[in-house]
Design goal:
Metallo-B-lactamas, seven-stranded mixed β-sheet, Metallo-beta-lactamase, Chain A, alpha/beta, globular, 14 strands, Phosphoribosyl 1,2-cyclic phosphate phosphodiesterase, 8 helices, RibonucZ/Hydroxyglut_hydro
Amino acid sequence: MKLLMLGSGTSTGVPRIGNDWGECDPGNPRNRRTRVSIIVENDAGKRVLIDTSTDLRAQLLANNIAKVDAVFWTHDHADHCHGIDDLRVMRYDRTNPLPGYASKVTCDRLRKRFDYVFEGQFGYPTLMDLQEVGQVRLVVGFDFKYVEMPHGPVTSTGFRFEADGKSIGYATDFSEITKEMVSCFKGTDLLVVDCLRRRPHPTHAHLEMAIDFARRCKAKRAVLTHLDKSMDYAALEAEVPKGFIVGYDGLEIGL
């Protein structure tokens, strides 16, 4: 399996509009962060995209990704789904819609907001076939599990993908650690985990919570993501314990 981190930043990215780098060194390219999204690939070359960030087109071009085989959404916040229209190009050479998966709540909201994607319109074909995650357990060669995670007043769906004897977990946008989350991600080979900043936040994990979560899950390695402008790459890399990787746009990890 392989992880490709398309984006590693918070909802406003780094730098924020206005060229606001916060505490991040603008001279370090790993501090330039687009909105969070990843691709998981198995040994057969099948790719699963998690979230369609607002920066999706630029991310796919930067990483030379022409197609994916399925799409999962964690939730419907703008930074995680508003790049959905960039999937249109991937429909051109398909005889059927691209498969997509999300929780019931997220499915309902995506269908309402982007009806043309899931229903077709004005002679254009349906782009995606959207299903609730509880209805399937195997997608394009990946076994997967999921868990609903507290994200302030709403929830975000965490995913665990297994293929070729390895496992990758994706747990972003959570504000509490539950026993169900620990159970879902127990023993993952690689866990990508929410880590907005050092100080606690009402809707996201902070550094101490992210480290605690990965350790409670007994993940073999963990990658920190959803980093804001206070999280300078070099400073954070020198700070994190062994087994933790500071995520950045374009990061690839093979298992």
